[in-house]
Amino acid sequence: MRRFLRSFRFAVSGVAYTVRTQRNMRIHLAFAVAVIVAATALGVSALEGAVLALAAASVMALELVNTAVERTIDRIGPDPHPLAKTAKDAAAGAVLVAAAGAALAGLFILGPPLWRLLFGG
């Protein structure tokens, strides 16, 4: 149990570091909170809420991986290298793809009830 708690503490430390140092992670977190508030206010189903939560968690998880890739490459060496750029760009691209998917999920799930609320249709 002690090992588990220790590894959990390391994981929380990684999340805290990323939230503290990465502007994009704070943006993703703010959007996740806004989506949760909107989903609750609009009364989405449990399944829809689960899809939204999974989409938001995926974006934030990939932002953590992106940060790990960037820090690892920076640790290896400060000199620019085409392979380092490719690795960093690919990690950032993974976040972008997840964020686009999450935005689409949010639009499909939250769009119709929000439209009805705002425009009565």
Automatic annotation (TrEMBL):
Q: Which UniProt keywords apply?
A: ATP-binding, Cell membrane, Kinase, Lipid biosynthesis, Lipid metabolism, Membrane, Nucleotide-binding, Phospholipid biosynthesis, Phospholipid metabolism, Transferase, Transmembrane, Transmembrane helix
Where does the record locate the signal sequence feature? Answer: none
TM region(s), chain numbering: 27-44, 50-69, 90-111
Report the subcellular localization: Cell membrane
Q: One GO molecular-function annotation for this sequence?
A: kinase activity
InterPro entries (alphabetical): DAGK (IPR000829), DAGK_sf (IPR036945), UDPK (IPR033717)
> Which coarse location class applies to the principal site listed for this UniProt protein?
membrane
| Membrane topology listed for this record | Multi-pass membrane protein
> Would you identify the family this protein belongs to, as annotated?
Belongs to the bacterial diacylglycerol kinase family.
> Would you tell me the protein name for this molecule?
Diacylglycerol kinase
- Organism from which the protein derives: Paenibacillus cisolokensis
